[in-house]
TrEMBL record:
A molecular function (GO) term: endonuclease activity
Segments forming domain Putative restriction endonuclease: 14-170
Domain of life: Bacteria
Alphabetically ordered keywords of this record: Endonuclease, Hydrolase, Nuclease
Organism: Phytoactinopolyspora halotolerans
InterPro entries given in the database record: Nuclease_put_TT1808, Restrct_endonuc-II-like, Uma2
PANTHER family for this protein: SLL1072 PROTEIN, SLR1083 PROTEIN
Protein name: Uma2 family endonuclease
Amino acid sequence: MMVMPRGSHDWTVDDLKQLPDDGLRYELLDGMLLVSPAPRPVHQDAVHELIKVLDARLPAHLRAYFAPIDWQPDRRTSFQPDILVVRREDVGEENITAPLLLAVEVLSPSTRRKDQLLKFSKYAEAGVASYWIVDPEEPSLVAYDLAGDGYREVGRAKGTESITLGHPIPVTIVPDALVAR
């Protein structure tokens, strides 16, 4: 039986190890526990197709992972991006703590606000170089690169439009191609 921390902002990465493996996604944002249900098939289709696109282009010194894998930039934050790209040398035994080269979040009804606001801000604050938000319902992709202390939009595409991005690798993506029809 797990004992809950005293306050809502007292969670640490150590507390996550005590949570059940029950199909829910447990993440931390500055000590606050965030819980999301398992993703829907359209979400997983987009993740699957995008990981194939990235894997085909990644050089040997980079690695792409898909959730669940913990990125823990500090003791009170632990995210499981839908997809992340990192230098192979930055991968630890249990998690990743180094700033990511790319974090990708695929929107779900239950995560839309968290991905577009909360994670957006924390990824920028923690030095994640590029952040992509994919909406499989539209389908669309919006890409941001870190500039100074925040993100600037570097491209967006919807449906059959293509988007060519340069970071962390040059790649062209068509949002419609990410979802099974």
